[in-house]
Design a protein that fits this description.
Largest sheet of chain A: 4 strands, antiparallel
Helix content of chain A: 10-25%
CATH architecture of chain B: 3-Layer(aba) Sandwich
Shape of chain A: globular
Number of domains of chain B: 1
Strand content of chain B: 15-25%
Structural class of chain B: alpha/beta
CATH class of chain B: Alpha Beta
Radius of gyration of chain B: 17 Å
CATH superfamily of chain B: Alpha/Beta hydrolase fold, catalytic domain
Strand order of the largest sheet of chain B: 1-2-4-3-5-6-7-8
Order of helices and strands of chain A: EEEEH
Oligomer: heterodimer
Structural class of chain A: alpha+beta
Radius of gyration of chain A: 14 Å
Strand content of chain A: 35-45%
Shape of chain B: globular
Number of strands of chain A: 4
Distance between the termini of chain A: 40 Å
Number of strands of chain B: 8
Chain lengths: 86, 248
């Protein structure tokens, strides 16, 4: 099914796309059909710079289980970063 | 007997509001007279598997034309990037879609060898759009492959900016073939039943098949959703249907 469920957030950072590094300003997170991953539905994240056009995109498609593991890893990494660095 | 020769290429057609958009044309060679099909790609975009579907119609004796419904949003971008951009905007606007399909149908009718008959087929979001086209344009046969939100409304948390269109059923201009998966949730089987009931009450010719063991996107050969049994039977029904209403 096409779920269309989407979270949109503003982010600050950089991503490396097909044409090299670019500034990332936005991210969308959605659970829907993947383009490439061998699963019927995946947790998809697009890191975007809309000002750079549709091709300014870094895309990942993760199984639900691995996406949750990634989210935990991100939180754990940030929690364990030395104080003063964040 | 057909020699199965065909030609396929990317062309430019005049779409909604007179804008030129990209489209993929496949047509049979060595045939004096043929029917035509407008192919409406799925939400993942104007991608290689959708072009393969378009060529399949040409291999079976039909001219087929697939407009790139995402062209304006992302000219020159890869199909997946374009689809992501359109998805973030809530999908293709219905009015623009209809203008693009109308332009595609006009192009097909003007082809040398066209018998003047034009059908439409759409997959996923294109299934809803196929129904919309058949209720809005003068066509000869329409196929809806698992289109959602024909009867139901997207829930508030979904960014999809389309509404139900079942109320247009009385305007359906041609016979409708519907192919659905029993395990699909969008559209769920009860939505399919509701649409069939609405069409029956409106006195509109339709033929629906709901396949057990299949969910959404069972025609997609490059995805885990592919279900060979449903897809094989579905293709047979499509060509039987078009054979009755479009051929020769």
């Amino acid at each position: 099914m096409c779920t269309y469920l989407t979270e949109k957030i503003e982010v600050a950072g950089s991503g490396k796309g097909a044409a090299g590094w670019f500034t990332v300003t936005d991210a969308t997170v959605y659970f829907d059909h993947p383009q490439h991953a061998p699963a019927e539905h995946t947790l998809n994240i697009d890191f975007l710079n809309p000002a750079g056009g549709p091709s300014a995109r870094v895309a990942v498609e993760l199984t639900a289980e691995s996406a949750r593991a990634l989210a935990k890893a991100i939180e754990a990494t940030l929690d364990s970063a030395p104080s003063g660095l964040i | 007997m057909s020699n199965e020769a065909l030609t396929a290429e990317t062309i430019s057609i005049t779409g909604h509001d007179g804008h030129e958009i990209e489209a993929y044309l496949a047509r049979p060679l060595g045939t004096d007279s043929f029917g035509s099909v407008v192919v409406i790609h799925h939400m993942p975009g104007y991608d290689p598997p959708s072009k393969e579907i378009t060529r399949t119609f040409a291999a079976n004796g039909y001219a087929a034309l697939m407009p790139n419904l995402h062209h304006r949003d992302a000219p020159g971008a890869s199909p997946d990037d374009a689809a992501a951009a359109v998805r973030a905007k809530g999908g293709v606007p219905d009015e623009r879609f209809l203008g693009d399909v109308s332009g595609a149908a006009d192009y097909l009718r003007a082809l040398d060898g066209s018998n003047g008959k034009v059908g439409v087929i759409g997959y996923c979001s294109g299934g809803r759009q196929s129904f919309l086209a058949a209720c809005s344009l003068q066509l000869d046969a329409a196929v809806d492959c698992y289109g959602a939100f024909v009867v139901s409304t997207p829930t508030a948390e979904l960014p999809l900016k389309v509404g139900p269109i079942a109320h247009l059923a009385g305007n359906l201009s041609c016979p409708l073939l519907g192919l659905f998966g029993a395990e699909d949730k969008y559209p769920a089987p009860d939505e399919v039943e509701e649409l069939a009931k609405i069409l029956t009450e409106a006195g509109k010719e339709h033929e629906f098949h709901v396949y057990d063991g299949a969910g959404h996107a069972f025609f997609s050969v490059n995805r885990p959703a592919y279900r060979a049994e449903a897809a094989n039977d579905g293709w047979q029904r499509i060509f039987d249907f078009y054979g009755r209403y479009l051929a020769g």
